[in-house]
Amino acid sequence: MSKVNGKKLAAPVLGQRGKIVQKFGTVVDLPLGLTPEVRLESAENLNQLLVDTMSLRDMYKKHHWQVSGHTFYQLHLLLDKHFEEQAELVDTIAERIQLLGGVTVAMAHDVAERTRLERPPIDREEPPVQLSRLLEAHELILKESHDFAKIAADSGDDGTNDLVVSDVIRTNELQVWFIAEHLVALPVVNAD
Questions:
Q1: What is the separation of C-alpha 54 from the centre of its chain, rounded to a whole number of angstroms?
Q2: Does residue 55 contact residue 117 with C-beta atoms inside 8 Å?
Q3: What residue ranges define each of the domains in the chain, with the CATH number in brackets?
């Protein structure tokens, strides 16, 4: 510790480590009107949705940086807009997990281990491949979202059901529409 004239300075204490206050895969008891089993199942499902959404968010940023071609400007802006919307979903999903008394997946290496999305190559790909990859990721997230929403509804977890339906499904469906329209085989200059 640093001292000046024999007095301690206000300096950060570095290198601290301590005990874990909550294990991943558990829920703490909160008075939410839901059983611990329901909250744990919802937290587990939401963590899967979280890691897949984080992967999709990052895929949008990758493709935003690496897109090319005659629609570069439009796609560059669209992919960044979708990135921002996915980033909002990440925060919303993570907060719901914590609200249920769970622990969120948060670090990139944990996300990479748990995501169900296909990992894109580190290389730069053609725009149609980038967009197809995004649509496949959306479809996986939408399928698991429908399953998770039904599980939450059946167990009485209306808050999780509402989040998944109102936020996750609706955002992903709209993004699918915007991306899919870029893969329609229409002539660019001359009509058939």
A1: 3
A2: yes
A3: 39-182 (1.20.1260.10)
- Give the torsion through C-alpha atoms of 61, 117, 89, 110, to 10 deg: -90
**Burial group, residue 54, by CB count within 10 angstroms (0-12, 13-18, 19+):** buried
Nearest residue to 102 via CA among 23, 35, 43: 43
Any residues with CB less than 8 A from the CB of 137 and at least 6 apart, and which?
52, 55, 56, 59, 117, 118
Amino acid identity at 42: S
Per-residue pLDDT of the chain (192 residues; tens, 9 = 90+): 567 777 777 888 889 999 999 999 999 999 999 999 999 999 999 999 999 999 999 999 999 999 999 999 999 999 999 999 999 999 999 999 999 999 999 999 999 999 999 999 999 999 999 999 999 999 999 999 999 999 999 999 999 999 999 999 999 999 999 999 999 987 777 777
Axis crossing angle, helix 170-180 with helix 127-154, rounded to the nearest 10: 160
Residue type, 166: S
